[in-house]
Amino acid sequence: MNSEEVKARLNKVFRDIFDDPDLCIAEATTAADIDAWDSLTHIDLIVQVEKEFKVKFSTGDVRGLRNVGDFIALIVKKTA
Hints:
By secondary structure, the chain is mainly alpha-helical. It has 4 helices and no strands.
């Protein structure tokens, strides 16, 4: 799966979690860019992404994420 495919599927997850059908993520998107992104929605997001892509993230994986681009790269790596 390439990064564009991951980004498209990830965007759907973001729209569901944040209940915003118009939300469009970019590689530079961070929690500061989305008003509803708090610690609880962060956990929901991680869990839903794990389900969507059938992967598991370690605490270290999640701590190392600085933005959506890092998240996409991690998913590509985990699904390779």
